[in-house]
User: Which sequence fits this backbone?
C-alpha cells in the first residue's frame, strides 16, 4: 500500500506541528500517491527554518541548509525537510537571484513548476491544492503553476522537466504550457549540462518517450544542448524507452563522422566507458561473418551488452544502423554460446605471461600481448584446451616467436 511510507514519516509532521509549525508532504510523492503509483522518496515542506528543524529533532544532517533543506534521520530513515521558500527575481534563466524563507504554504507551492507537483498533503492525508493539480492529474494534463512564459523564462530547466514528465506519465502538455516551451526553448543554453542530463536520463527511459522525443525535436531542443548540438537529431527515431547510455551510443554509431565529445555531457567515467563500449560493439556487429567471429565478440563484449542491443533491434533498424547477420547473432545464440564459452575473461586462462616467458625462455616484449590474444582465440575456438601444459605445447608448435 503506497500510504505506508507516508505513515512512517507522519511522526515528523506531527512533531513539527506540536512545536507550532506547519508541515506537509509535497512534490513528486504526493503526485504519485494521487495517481496510485509507487512512491520512492518523500519530501516534506515546513514553516520551520533549518535552525528550528535542527533544534527539534535529535538527529539531523545539514545537506542543503542554504536552500533550506535539512535531512532528518528518524527510525533509521532519512527524510528531506525543506523550509517554505519563495524566490526572488531570475536574471539568468536558471537560478533565482535570492531565495527567502517564508511562513506560508501558498508562497512555497506557488514557485513550484507544474500544478501536479504543487500539491501538499498534511499528516491526516488532507490535500491542499491551490492550483487544481488534482484536476490536471485526473485529466492527464501538464500545466505550469501560473503563467507559462514567466515560469519558463525564470528557469528553462522546467521545459525539459515538463517533457520528461510527459515521457514518464504520458500526459498532454496544456496549450499555453506548450507555447511557453516554444518561446523559451533557446534559454536552455544557459542551463548547466548536469541538470539537463538528469532530466534526459529520465526522459529516454520513460514509457511514453515517443511523444516527448518528438516534442524535443519539434522544439529543436537539442540545438541548444552541449554534445547533442553537433548531431542531426531530427533524423533520429526514439519511440521506446531505452537507457540514456544506449541512446547516446546509437546516435554516435549512426553518425560516426560527427565528433561529439562525451566530456561535454559531464557524465561519470563509468557512463562514458559504457557508451564507448556500446558504440564499439555497434560498429563491430556488421563485421561478424562466422560463428567463430561471433564467439570472440561474445567473449570480448559479454552477453549483457549484446543482449541490450538485441532487445532494441527495432530502434537499430529504424535508425538505419549498419545491419548484421540475424542468423549468427540473435538472442538465443547469445545465451547458448555464452554458456558454452570455455573462458569468459583473461583471468580464466590457465596460463599467464610469466609462465609463457619461462616456457619459451625469452625476454618479454610486445610479442607477448599478441601471443596472449592468439591463445585466447585458440581456446575459444577449441583449438587448444585450457590446460597449462596443453597451452605451452600449442604455443611451441604453432607460434613462431622471434
Ligand atoms: P521524481 O518523482 O522524478 O523525483 P519530482 O516531482 O519529485 O519527481 P524532483 O526533481 O524530485 O521531482 O523535485 C521535487 C519537487 O520540487 C517537484 O515536485 C517540484 O515541486 C519542485 N521542483 C523541482 N525542480 C523544480 C524547478 N526547476 N522549478 C520549480 N519547481 C521545481
Ligand atoms: Mg522527487
Assistant:
Amino acid at each position: 500500500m503506497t500510504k505506508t511510507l507516508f505513515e512512517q514519516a507522519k511522526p515528523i509532521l506531527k512533531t513539527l506541528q506540536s512545536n507550532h509549525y506547519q508541515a506537509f508532504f509535497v512534490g513528486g510523492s504526493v503526485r504519485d500517491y494521487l495517481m496510485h503509483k509507487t512512491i520512492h522518496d518523500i519530501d516534506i515542506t515546513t514553516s520551520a527554518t533549518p535552525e528550528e528543524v535542527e533544534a527539534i529533532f535529535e538527529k539531523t544532517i545539514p545537506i542543503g541548509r542554504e536552500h533550506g533543506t535539512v535531512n532528518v534521520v528518524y527510525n533509521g530513515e532519512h527524510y528531506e525537510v525543506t523550509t517554505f521558500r519563495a524566490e526572488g527575481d531570475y536574471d539568468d534563466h536558471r537560478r533565482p537571484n535570492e531565495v527567502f524563507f517564508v511562513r506560508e504554504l501558498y508562497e512555497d507551492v506557488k514557485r513550484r513548476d507544474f500544478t501536479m507537483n504543487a500539491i501538499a498533503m498534511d499528516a491526516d492525508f488532507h490535500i491542499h491544492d491551490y492550483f487544481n493539480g488534482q484536476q490536471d492529474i485526473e485529466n492527464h494534463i501538464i500545466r505550469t503553476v501560473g503563467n507559462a512564459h514567466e515560469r519558463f523564462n525564470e528557469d528553462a530547466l522546467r521545459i525539459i522537466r515538463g517533457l520528461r514528465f510527459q515521457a514518464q506519465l504520458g500526459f498532454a502538455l496544456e496549450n499555453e504550457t506548450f507555447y511557453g516551451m516554444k518561446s523559451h526553448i533557446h534559454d536552455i543554453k544557459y542551463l548547466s549540462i548536469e541538470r539537463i542530463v538528469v532530466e534526459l536520463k529520465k526522459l529516454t527511459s520513460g514509457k511514453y518517450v515517443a511523444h516527448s522525443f518528438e516534442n524535443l525535436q519539434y522544439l529543436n531542443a537539442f540545438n541548444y544542448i552541449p554534445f547533442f548540438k553537433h548531431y542531426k537529431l531530427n533524423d533520429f527515431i526514439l519511440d521506446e524507452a531505452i537507457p540514456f547510455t544506449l541512446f547516446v551510443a546509437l546516435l554516435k554509431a549512426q553518425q560516426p563522422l560527427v565528433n561529439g565529445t562525451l566530456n561535454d555531457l559531464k557524465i561519470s567515467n563509468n557512463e562514458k566507458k559504457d557508451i564507448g563500449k556500446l558504440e564499439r560493439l555497434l560498429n563491430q556487429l556488421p563485421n561478424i561473418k562466422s560463428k567463430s567471429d561471433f564467439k570472440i565478440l561474445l567473449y570480448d563484449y559479454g552477453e549483457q551488452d549484446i543482449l541490450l542491443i538485441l532487445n532494441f533491434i527495432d530502434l537499430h533498424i529504424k535508425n538505419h544502423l549498419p545491419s548484421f547477420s540475424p542468423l549468427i547473432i540473435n538472442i538465443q545464440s547469445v545465451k547458448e554460446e555464452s554458456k558454452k564459452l570455455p573462458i569468459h575473461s583473461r583471468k580464466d586462462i590457465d596460463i599467464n605471461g610469466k609462465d609463457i616467458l619461462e616456457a619459451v625462455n625469452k625476454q618479454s616484449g610486445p610479442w607477448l600481448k599478441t601471443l596472449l590474444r592468439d591463445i585466447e582465440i585458440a581456446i575459444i575456438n577449441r583449438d587448444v584446451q585450457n590446460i597449462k601444459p596443453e597451452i605451452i605445447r600449442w604455443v611451441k608448435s604453432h607460434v613462431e616467436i622471434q
Summary: Residues 3-18 form the longest helix (16 residues). The pocket of adenosine-5'-triphosphate (ligand 1) is lined by residues 27-28, 43, 112-113, 117-118, 155, 157-158, 161 (CB under 6 Å).
